[in-house]
Specification:
Blueprint lengths: L13 E4 L2 H11 L8 H23 L12 E6 L4 E6 L6 H9 L5 H11 L4 H4 L14 E9 L8 E5 L4 E6 L6 E8 L9 H11 L7 E3 L22 H12 L7 E7 L5 E7 L16 E5 L2 E7 L11 E6 L8 H6 L2 H23 L1 H21 L4 H5 L5 E2 L9 H6 L7 E6 L3 H5 L5 H6 L3 E4 L2 H9 L2 E2 L2 E5 L22 H15 L3 E6 L8 E4 L7 H10 L8 E5 L4 H8 L5 H18 L9 H17 L1
Parallel strand pairs: 2-8, 11-13, 15-16, 15-18, 19-21
Antiparallel strand pairs: 1-6, 2-3, 3-7, 4-5, 4-7, 5-6, 9-10, 10-13, 11-12, 14-16, 17-18, 20-21
Helix pairs in contact: 9-10, 10-15, 15-17, 16-19, 19-20
The structure holds adenosine-5'-diphosphate (ADP) and magnesium ion (MG).
The site of adenosine-5'-diphosphate has 17 residues, from helix 2 and helix 3.
Length: about 625
């Protein structure tokens, strides 16, 4: 710019370039053939609503704002002839610096994820735009040009205007606007003229923005278009199923129906409205509107925290929704809300309610509860591991697979109901997955005796056990360490013959020689019937689940040294004895017996290292059988 007298920056018309990332997004949006372009209105209205919420929050503590008497609302006007759509809010507004910062670069909205996804795979974006909160820029799906004029709530701020046509640059210039807020003037593309039609706009608002908490006026109408109801403050009997679902969808952009909803209104011990949802999926979708965990916290219908994490314990962080209380002091900052002492009481009520609803679900609709468990079981386990306050209530929400019912989920109460008459303990076994754990030699005796054992195969289970030492009067006991009497037939194979003691001792010596330092001892076992060998912990070592906790947490995990127990009636050992001392094959087999035991235990540090030895054994086997 070559002017004689340099004017103040804020008085000139300045041109800026969009960042590369923004240009890329604009490009996708401008050329998008997405048929539901209408979502741009949802994005603009949601920004207006954010701006109004922020202004209202500001006014809790600051009366020195421009137009402090102005109604908090959104006004939409249409001009069909000119293809103009104008959306104006009386929200917090933007200063010149803010408008450059906020509209010049991609905000933290879904847009960033969208761009990321567009880099990662060449998906058909037009299909998914509607599910992203792509933010302000989505207006370029329908706009030939956009002018944003804004005036900040700060009394000294001057109005500013931002103008873009969707190419690489935008202009910022001073503007005339006496009132506080933001006005977005859109010149619609020729093929987007429908968005200047009143009926169409009404329709879109009902579909996507009905639950915005501020009135949206259309044209000259005196009544707002949107329902505007704070659904959580509406009586349950007046809300249809459809409305509950719409509310969830519009506030989370989760397209899947929630698993459960909880609408709670109480006066004691605290006054509280809550509308909570359990999503169908634990993973927050790529498309989710919510950017973080936490509940929306309102105080007398005013949003004071978008992502409040103090209303529920951490393990219930997957719960979505709104909490509103008349008891929260109004004239406060977020910090004083935390200090007010009310939060723990709200949390107690809400936690109790969520757990009660889950309990009811488990009782009344086990199938749905199982679906919940499948998705969120890990969270409940985390709760048991970390939260002792809720104790038994959480224990009853746990579900397990067992050696006797590996395909279905059992509660601890169900397990207890199936216990043998003289059984005093609840048995469990830890491992890497249900299949391999079912093969565990530790289960031999339990299977022989028909004793039920919980299969704990997830990393979280080892932590779970730290918080779950007993259920009712029954202590939990690791099957590998349980002190149970073997069944009669144990220790005998089909022909019932055990290796004579002298020979067996020879064998034990050979195992010790070959395995050396890897084991603390080799000995006979009373607890094996089908299996060849098992590993047990020497007296005084940490129990198996603690070893796993170390494995998960530890940087340098070492396989703990164990005792190798052998089944003196197993045919393989009999044949090994016949093979004679110190052959190469004999050594390989002994190593393999130990490694296999480690594998079943889920403790092998390097399973692929077994391949060469297995090949060696196979070669030997083939050589033998082709010779014969
Ligand atoms: P997001 O809403 O996720 O932050 P957007 O792209 O929708 O992303 O908006 C970018 C930013 O622009 C907002 O965070 C806000 O600071 C600002 N903004 C957009 N619309 C308005 C408005 N009507 N009033 C005030 N600020 C706005
Ligand atoms: Mg937005």
């Amino acid at each position: 710019m070559s002017k004689t007298k340099a004017p103040k920056e804020s008085e000139t018309n300045q041109t800026f370039s969009f960042k590369a990332e923004t240009r890329q997004l604009l490009n996708i949006l401008i050329h998008s053939l997405y048929k539901e372009r209408e979502v741009f209105l949802r994005e603009l209205l949601s920004n207006a609503s954010d701006a109004l919420n922020r202004l209202r929050f500001e006014m809790l503590t600051n009366q020195d704002v421009l137009d402090s008497e102005a109604e908090l609302c959104v006004r939409i006007s249409l001009d069909k002839e000119q293809r103009l759509l104008t959306i104006q809010d009386s929200g917090i507004g933007m200063t010149r610096d803010e408008i450059i910062e906020h509209l010049g670069t991609i905000a933290e909205s879904g847009a960033r994820k969208f761009i990321q996804a567009s880099r990662e795979k060449q998906a058909d974006f037009s299909q998914i735009i509607g599910q992203f909160g792509v933010g302000f820029y989505s207006v370029f799906m329908v706009a030939e040009s956009v002018r944003v004029t804004s005036r900040s709530f700060r009394p000294q701020a001057e109005a500013v205007s931002w103008y873009a046509t969707g190419d690489d640059t935008y202009q910022v210039s001073p503007a005339q606007m006496p009132e506080r807020g933001t006005k977005i003037e859109i010149k619609l593309k020729e093929d987007a003229a429908e968005f200047a039609e009143e009926f169409r706009i009404q329709n879109i608002i009902h579909r996507h923005s009905d639950y915005i908490g501020f009135p949206i006026y259309l044209g000259e109408a005196k009544d707002p278009v949107n329902k505007r109801a704070s659904l959580w403050r509406t009586s349950r009997s007046e809300i249809s199923d459809e409305q509950y679902k719409d509310f969830y969808r519009q506030t989370t952009l989760d397209w899947e129906e929630p698993l459960l909803r909880i609408h709670l209104v109480t006066d004691a011990p605290v006054q509280l409205y809550a509308l909570l949802y359990l999503p169908a999926k634990a993973e927050r979708g790529l498309f989710a509107l919510r950017k973080d965990d936490g509940l929306k916290l309102y105080s007398r219908n005013i949003l004071i925290d978008e992502y409040n994490k103090d209303l529920l314990p951490d393990y219930l962080r997957f719960v979505q929704g709104v909490v509103d209380s008349e008891d929260l002091p109004l004239n406060v900052s977020r910090e004083t809300v935390q200090a007010s002492g009310l939060m723990p009481r709200l949390k107690k009520v809400l936690t109790g309610q969520v757990l009660k609803e889950l309990e009811n679900l488990a009782k009344n609709d086990p199938e749905k509860y199982n679906a919940f468990w499948q998705e969120f079981g890990g969270y409940i386990k985390q709760g048991v591991a970390s939260d002792t306050a809720e104790g038994q209530k959480l224990h009853d929400l746990l579900r397990f697979r067992t050696n006797q019912q590996p395909e279905t989920w059992s509660s601890l109460a169900e397990y207890a109901g199936r216990m043998k008459e003289d059984q005093k303990e609840i048995y469990y076994i830890v491992g890497d997955d249900a299949k391999s754990v079912l093969r565990s030699p530790h289960l031999d005796t339990f299977n022989d005796l028909g004793l039920e054992v919980l299969l704990l195969t997830e990393p979280m289970d080892s932590f779970l056990l730290m918080g779950l030492r007993a259920y009712k009067e029954f202590a939990l006991k690791n099957a590998a360490q349980a002190d149970i009497q073997p069944a009669e037939k144990s220790g005998q194979d089909a022909d019932g013959e055990r290796i004579p003691d002298d020979d067996f001792n020879l064998l034990v010596e050979r195992f010790k020689d070959v395995l050396g330092e890897q084991v603390t001892d080799v000995r006979t076992s009373q607890r094996l019937s089908q299996s060849l060998a098992r590993l047990v912990d020497p007296e005084g070592s940490p129990n198996p689940e603690m070893q796993r906790v170390y494995k998960y947490l530890g940087k340098e995990y070492e396989v703990p040294k164990k005792i190798l127990e052998l089944n003196p009636a197993h045919p393989l050992l009999k044949n090994l004895l016949k093979l004679g001392a110190d052959t190469e094959l004999g050594q390989a087999i002994i190593e393999q017996v130990y490694d296999s035991a480690l594998l079943v235990e889920g403790l092998h540090p390097d399973p692929s290292s077994l391949a060469p030895r297995i090949q060696q054994i196979m070669e030997a086997a083939l050589e033998k059988s082709t010779k014969n």
